[in-house]
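The protein record passed on for reference:
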Amino acid sequence: MKRILVTGGNKGIGLATVAKLLKSYDDTRLILGSRNKERGEEAAGSLIRENGDWKERLVTVEIDVESEDSVKEAADKLSSMFGTEPPPLYGIVNNAGIGSASKGMERTLQVNTWGIKRVCDSFIPLLNPEIGRIVNVTSAAGPNYIEAGDESTRELLTNPQVTWEEVVEYMNRCIEKESRDETKSSSQANAYGLSKACANALTVCLARDYPSLIINSCTPGFIETDMTRPFADAQGKTPQEMGMKTPEDGASASVFLIMEDVPSSGMYFGSDCQRSPIDRYRSPGDPPYNG
């Protein structure tokens, strides 16, 4: 059985990812990660009611990616549950994230970027080193952020030799700059894209540091979730009128990267499962990026 951890798996794209893996791949066992234990169990219960056979292939774990202690406790729990020899995990889908600008730049980075690093630090030792995979769910907001950024930002976040220490230094500079911005309007607007651009850079670092693993990032697309629904409400439109797709659609790229034949590591993929550039937007259906 291929055991796969999905963080933020209790709703939206995360829950759809868990469901799609259960439906489409009989050789998977899913570990549904949720910041709130009760919500995780409720989500697992909804899946089991849909298909009772999934009960033996689904477990939940409480994991708050913003908390180092919570992440370590979750890793310890899985180690106790499954053992460590042989390595118990096949894959990790780092799906957990936040998108509200009102939460501020530091918290957005703590969840969307540092959160991925915390999970990888604690769970990579549990991954099968021969076939292990990691998918980091980012966003097209990352490439858009880089495209609109200054030259130094573009050079840093697109450098194939960028280090995690350089990414951390850049994020801390951005946080410090926000602290001096009395209105915080521009920095809040940039926080989400910044966090996703840095998550893509982290993916490059991880792929370089762990060459035996397959580690990539992807955008789910413009998906109707709790995060995006307010955009439609603000326009007085339905999510469908705004062009939003379903969470099931949003799970496609993650499922592809965790299960199918992927030719590369350290890359970023579009919602259509095609490789995309990290420094500019590529529309679904456009030719794959080959740079």
